[in-house]
Amino acid sequence: MPPKRPITLGDIIEVYCSKCRLNLDASVAAIIDGEVVKVMCRTCGNEVPNKPPVDPKLKKEKAMERLMKMRAKKSEGPKYVAPSPESPAVAVRKLWDDLTATADPRRAKVYDRHRTYAVNDVVLHKQFGMGVVHAKDQDDELNVLFRDGFQRIESNQPVDE
Ligand SMILES: [Zn+2]
Fold first, then answer.
1. How far is ligand 1, taken at its centre, from the CA of residue 153, in Å?
2. Exposure check for the chain: N or C terminus, fewer CB within 10 A?
3. Cα of 73 from ligand 1 centre, angstroms
4. 6: in domain
């Protein structure tokens, strides 16, 4: 543990980012009476309220609960189908929510087309944000689930191109 000193603006602390919905490093953006009230997420760049990191186990359980509820709803039959059926985009977004809710941000890899990735790897993409590798074909093309849907991106490309 580093020696204790008063926290100052710009210090990097671990918080729960309400935008990324993950425990991430953030820099202190506002302090009132020695309490950090606002931080800037280093992943999404948004200013968010300072929330302590969330216990990943607890989050996982909650996500599981949500999944179970979704499944239970489905098996209840047609009479319980919501009046306005979900669009595929909403369903994909929910899947993304659930996958990234249980993802460990320490395992997230910054996307680089030269790197190799495995199925279920969490990647951080400059344009698409955080995603989870859904599939990988023989050419190392990845099908990644991002917040706004699936994207096919290349990986393991030779460096000397
Ligand atoms: Zn964030």
1. 22
2. N
3. 31
4. no
Q: Rounded to whole angstroms, what are the CA distances from 153 to 83, 134, 139, 146? A: 36, 11, 11, 11
Alpha carbon distance 14, 135 (integer Å):
30
Collapsing DSSP to helix, strand or coil, 130 comes out as strand
Range of the domain at 78: 56-153
Which tokens sit at 90? Answer: 């909403």
Question: What is the tens place of the pLDDT at every residue in 66-75?
Answer: 888 887 776 6
Residues 20 and 73 in one domain: no
68 in the same domain as 36: no
pLDDT, one tens digit per residue, over 100-150 is 887 777 778 999 999 999 999 999 999 999 999 999 998 899 999 998 899
